[in-house]
Amino acid sequence: MYDFVITGAGLAGLELGYLMAKKGSKVCVLEKDSRIGGCLQTFKRNGTLYDTGFHYVGGLDEGQPLNTLFKELDLLDLPWRRLDNEAFDEVIIGDEHYFFANGFDNFAEKIITDYKSNGHEISKESAEGIFEYARFLKDVGDNIFNVLGDAAHSNTMDLFARSAYQFLKDTIKDDKLIGVVSGTSMKLELRPETLPLYTFAQINSSFIRSAWRLEGGGMQIADKLAEGIRNFGGGVIINAKVTKFIENEGVIKAVEINGGEETIEGRNFISSIHPKLTLDLTPKEGSRIKNIFRKRIANLGNTYGMFTVNMKLKDGVVPYKNRNIYIHNNFNSIWQQSEYQPDLNNRSLMISYQAPTDRSTFTRNIDILMPMYWNELTKWEGTKVGHRGEEYEEMKRSLAEKCIEKATEYIPELKGNIEDFYTSTPLTYRDYTGTIEGSAYGIRKDCNNSLMTVLAPNTAIPNLYMTGQNLNLHGVLGVTMTAFMLYKQGNFKIT
Questions:
Q1: 3-state helix, strand, coil in the chain (%, to 5)
Q2: Which of 198, 238, 393, 478 has the fewest CB within 10 Å, making it most exposed?
Q3: With the C-alpha atoms ordered 365, 362, 440, 344, is the resulting torsion angle positive or negative?
Q4: Mean pLDDT over residues 323-333, rounded?
C-alpha cells in the first residue's frame, strides 16, 4: 500500500511526488498519457526539439522565490540561462517599443524613459504611480512565502478580492501607461472585470526579479523529478489512466486504473488534474462530496487557450534574442484579449526564442503564441488528435501563416528562412494534458467572488486532496507554490 497515490504527472503531481518520496513516504504517480510532464513536454520533429507550454520562468536568482523552492526540489543544476537584465521582455504596441528591465526601480525608470522616447508626456502623478506600482510588486514578492503558513493568509485573500485593473487605474491613472505595464499579458489572462490583484502582482513580480530560459526544453524538469521519485523508491507509471476513486466508509481506499484493469491502494490520494475531472472520478451516490459542490465546480469558467506555431529555421540566419517579444495592435487591445477577438489583427502575439544549447548566436527554433477561444473549435470538440479532418488542418495553416506574417514584420530574417512549422490548438492541449477546453491558465479567478474561485486543496473526503494550476495560482512559480502549500499544510495519514 502506498502512502500517496498521485493522479497526473504534470508539474504539480511530480513536485509533490518528489517532496513526499524525498521525505521517505511510499509514493506512486499515475499518468494517463504515454509521456509524463503535461505542459512541460517537449517533442522532436526532424531532429529539432520544441517546447509545448514551457517558455520561461521568473524569480530564479539566488534568494528569490523560485530559487528557494527549486533548491528543495533539486532543480537548480539544470542548464538555466538568464535573460537580458535590461530587456528580458520587449513589448511592442503599434510601432512603439518598450523594454522590461530586472530590478524594481530599474524597471520603473526604464518604463518611464521608454514612454517619453516614444513621444508621450507623463505627468508627475503617473510617474510616481509607476514607482508605487513597482514597490507594490516587490512587497508582494517579498511576502510570498507567508501563504505557506497562516501569518499573512488573510492579507493574501484580500488581494485576491481586489481588482488588478482597478488598482492600476487608481495607481498609474494613465491608460496608455497601464497598457505598457500590462504588455507581457500572455503570462496570464487580463480580464478587467475579474482578474485578482494578487494573481497579476505575483506573476509580474517574479519576472521583474529575474527571468530565465532552460536550454534543452522544459521536459528536463519533469524527467529530473521523475528520476528522483524512482531513486527515492517511488513509482511513476505511464499509460495508467485513473478511471475511478474507490470510496468506502467516507474515505478513498484505492484508485481504479484503465477501467478496472488494476486497482492501486493508498492512504492519501492527491489529484493534480482539473477539479471537475477529479470530482467526476468520485462516486455520485453516498459520497461525502455533495452535488451542490459538484455543480459549483462544473460551472466555473476557464481561461482562454493558445494557438501555437513552432517554427524550424534554417541554420545560421535568424539571430537569437535573449528576451521575449510581445506584440499588440494598440494600447486598448491588451486588456481585451480575454474576450473573443474575431479580427486577428486585434489579437496579441508572444514570440519566444529557443536558447541554443551550443551558445550559438543564432536560433533554430522560434515559437509564436496567440490567444485562441473555445468557440472557434466547437465543431471539432468530439474529435481526437490526428483525426480532425482537412478543414481543421486548413484552419491551422491559415492561422499559422497570419502569425508568421505578423512576426516577420519585427523579425525580418524569418522571411524565406522557415524550413517547416508545426501547430497546436487548445484541442491539442485538452487531449494531451486533460485540461478542460485546453485552458492556458486554468480556472478563471474572480476578484468579485474569490471564495468561490480560489479553491482549497482539501476536499470533503478527508484523504483526497487537489493541486495544480486550477486551485489558486498558475505558471511554474504558482503551481510550485500550490504544491508546497499542500506539502506543508496537508494533514496526511502516514503509517
A1: 40, 20, 40
A2: 393
A3: negative
A4: 96
Collapsing DSSP states into helix, strand and coil, what is residue 292?
Answer: helix
- Please give the Cα distance from 266 to 470 (Å, whole number): 24
Residue 333 has pLDDT above 70, yes or no: yes
Number of domains composing the chain: 2
**pLDDT score at 152:** 46
Residue 150 has pLDDT above 60, yes or no: no
- Backbone φ and ψ for 403, nearest 5 degrees, come out as -65, -45
221 and 204 within one domain: no
Q: What is the pLDDT of residue 343?
A: 94
Judge if 170 and 264 occupy the same domain. Answer: no
User: Residue 368 phi/psi, 5° resolution?
Assistant: -115, 130
In a domain, 87, yes or no: yes
Q: Is the Cα dihedral 53, 58, 59, 65 positive or negative? A: negative
From residue 446, alpha-carbon distances to 191, 417, 449 in Å are: 9, 44, 5
Assign 431 to helix, strand or coil. Answer: helix
Q: Are 284 and 315 found together in one domain?
A: no
Indicate whether 433 belongs to any domain: no
CA atoms within 13 A on the CB side of 260: 0
Q: Is 131 domain-assigned?
A: yes
Please name every residue paired with 388 in a beta bridge, in sequence order, or none if there are none.
Answer: none
pLDDT reading at 151 higher than 50: no
In the chain, the amino acid numbered 472 is: N
pTM of the shown model:
0.95
Residues 278 and 314 occupy one common structural domain? no
- 2 burial via Cβ count (<10 Å: 0-12, 13-18, 19+): buried
Judging by beta carbons within 10 Å of its beta carbon (0-12, 13-18, 19+), is residue 113 exposed, middle or buried? middle
Q: Using the 8-state DSSP alphabet, how is residue 287 labeled? A: -
CATH of the domain at 247: 3.50.50.60
Q: Please report the pLDDT score of residue 338 as a whole number.
A: 94
Whether residues 251 and 330 fall in one domain: no
Q: How many CB atoms lie within 10 A of CB 234?
A: 23
Domain span holding position 470: 2-42+217-301+442-489
Q: Confirm whether 70 is domain-assigned.
A: no
Mean pLDDT for the chain? Answer: 94
Whether residues 268 and 408 share a domain: the answer is no
- Three-state DSSP at 37 gives coil
Rg over alpha carbons for the chain, rounded to the nearest Å, is 22
Secondary structure (3-state) at 470:
coil
Residues 206 and 97 in one domain: yes
Other residues' Cβ atoms within 10 Å of the Cβ of residue 380:
16
Distances from the Cα of 83 to the Cαs of 61, 70, 88, 238, 348, in angstroms? Answer: 11, 18, 5, 34, 22
